[in-house]
Task: inverse folding
């Protein structure tokens, strides 16, 4: 194994890059802008140029780099083919071949960004010490990544770990971003808990502090719940019930050692973990009830850690 | 690789055994009784003796056997430890070590019987040609097995593929055998469809032929549905909806290439497949909608095929 590896997390606004020792220590991290114009044709060349610049500055030869891992905000098939990535403007593109070609044939491995973040959290974050990890990220949406025996499950159609789209309610009338109705993401995301709480406030005569907060946020709801606000507690319980139920479904499929929960909503900390775990235990198959629940620890760096882990 | 392998499927009534060429052709198959008395202490010695007898008869030296695979009706942890197997009377037992010890240190690999059957169907049955397979068996209960990249997913607590216990209804009042309420098994098994159909018959004024059939069976319901009986059709649709929804949950986790459906209920054939697939497509994440649906083909032999595949 060579001395260095590079992890890259491509987002819709910025590309995060990191150079690591192959032992896992980070050497340098930086960001560049994601230029999405002209069907995202500048994204890969910009990445290649930036890597050349920074490695040169650090006096690291590309010959001493084991490989480059890429996290991409869309489905990635085995072999590195991205099949339409709306956020970046890409059509069908083999990004592993593309970047390798731009950097003298260096080894490149790509996977979906949430799956890559899962790998990062397993390796150096909240899932450290485990080999079978379900990572859940609760942000604007609900993302996920499945790790079995230290390997990312990409899925046959690149949809492995798309747990935000598990159907939780058959009677939902509003649509999810994916076009279906009743997805987990509509209830357990930051926007989901706000939507649910607004409904509860409308129908409640309880004098909730949340009635004065505009715009309502997931943080405000968790803070109020910690202060004993009844409507806020109800909203948090509802999130816990939908997410706990979905995680119990996942356990009936792959029976993981640990669930690691990250994303903005996870800043709610122990209250979130305890509520989700309580509902999980109610609906999980008995053998799987011992699964651990942890908070993610790497924040926005999970992607670059997981990406470099793809090539190590 | 040596010339032969042995696959064993341990059931509560009989043990099925098969000697295979390592290329996959079956050489001989036979059954012995499962002696469950005295906490199942005779099961493993009976198996070892029977193997010695039959291999001797066939003039096959154990030195020319690559290994023995075991399917067990209960959870099996990595390393071959069975953690209570109620059907056989076993407590905590390392069955890989036990059988290996009885047969001169031969290589033994064990896994849960439904997971092993899944491997058999992938290798030589309905899932042939695929590497990422979800196997569902619809019998008295609902069992399952998950294969990713040709490997069985046993799970951290031996509960990988326990898809019969995915919670489908939070409002169910009757209990599942596992102690929870509202498990898939309560709706999509042979007993589940009969239970559901009996409820529909009670509340229907339609002159269903099924009112005269005692006891009602899954086969009678599917036959009547094929003849256009409205209550039977409703019961089949309900099974399709619950199973299709559960399979869409599974697809959001591991995104398989194919679902292979076996067990007694699968004798209903195309009508079952078409109904399940129709409901699956409604609730599945768009990227996973292209997954294939196939009928299992190995019947009761799936276990011995999958078991031997464990050691090849």
Result:
């Amino acid at each position: 194994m060579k001395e260095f590896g590079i992890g890259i997390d491509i987002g819709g606004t910025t590309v995060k890059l990191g150079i690591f020792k192959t032992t896992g220590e980070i050497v340098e991290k930086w960001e560049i802008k994601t230029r999405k114009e002209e069907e995202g044709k500048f994204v890969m060349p910009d990445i290649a140029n930036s890597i050349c610049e920074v490695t040169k500055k650090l006096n690291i030869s590309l010959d001493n780099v084991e490989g480059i891992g890429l996290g991409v905000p869309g489905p990635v098939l085995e072999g590195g083919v991205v099949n339409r990535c709306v956020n970046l403007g890409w059509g069908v593109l083999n990004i592993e071949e593309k970047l390798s070609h731009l950097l003298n044939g260096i080894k490149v491995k790509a996977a979906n960004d949430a799956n890559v973040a899962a790998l990062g959290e397993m390796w150096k974050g909240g899932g450290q010490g485990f080999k079978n990890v379900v990572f859940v990220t609760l942000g604007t949406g609900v993302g996920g990544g499945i790790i079995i025996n230290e390997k990312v499950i990409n899925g046959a159609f690149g949809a492995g770990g798309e747990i935000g789209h598990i159907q939780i309610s058959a009677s939902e009338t509003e649509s999810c971003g994916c076009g279906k109705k009743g997805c987990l993401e509509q209830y357990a995301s930051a926007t989901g808990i706000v939507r649910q709480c607004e409904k509860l406030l409308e129908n409640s005569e309880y004098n909730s502090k949340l009635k004065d907060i505009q715009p309502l946020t997931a943080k405000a709801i968790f803070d109020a719940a910690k202060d004993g606000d009844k409507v806020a507690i109800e909203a948090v319980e509802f999130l816990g019930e939908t997410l706990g139920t979905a995680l119990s479904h996942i356990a009936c499929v792959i029976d993981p050692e640990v669930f690691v929960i990250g994303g903005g909503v996870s800043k709610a900390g122990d209250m979130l973990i305890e509520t989700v775990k309580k509902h999980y235990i109610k609906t999980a198959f008995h053998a799987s009830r011992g699964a651990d629940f942890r908070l993610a620890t790497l924040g926005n760096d999970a992607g670059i850690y997981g990406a470099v882990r793809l090539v190590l």
Summary: Chain B touches chain A at residues 75, 132, 146, 148, 153-167, 170, 178-180, 245-246, 248-257, 283, 285-288, 290-291 (CB under 8 Å). The longest strand of chain B covers residues 14-21. DSSP finds ten helices and 13 strands in chain B.
